[in-house]
Amino acid sequence: MADETRTSSGSDSHSGERRPPRPGGREGGPGGRKFFRRKKVCKFCVEKIDSINYKDVRLLAQFVAESGKIVPRRLSGVCTPHQRRLSLAIKQARNIALLPFAGRAA
After folding, report:
1. What is the pTM of this model?
2. Out of 17-21, 80-84, 92-96, which region has the weakest mean confidence (pLDDT)?
3. How far apart are CA 54 and CA 92, in angstroms?
């Protein structure tokens, strides 16, 4: 009886049928167009923000994930010097309780 249920549910995935392409996904294979990803630019360089103030909680909160972690450069698009100043400002704001150390409890 256990063998019957296993054979009926597990054999569908390798039946040889191709799935339709996912909407919004990349086209694979030869000749397919690749997904175009726009280059991220540093928000601080574009808006010409010289100093990142630890008291500006609205600005800093944009670069902190829901879990409480500082968002890395490759995701946020911030340049290296600004990312260093940003992380210092976030750490200062955490120490004086303007920003939480951890995200919301799940």
Report:
1. 0.64
2. 17-21
3. 6
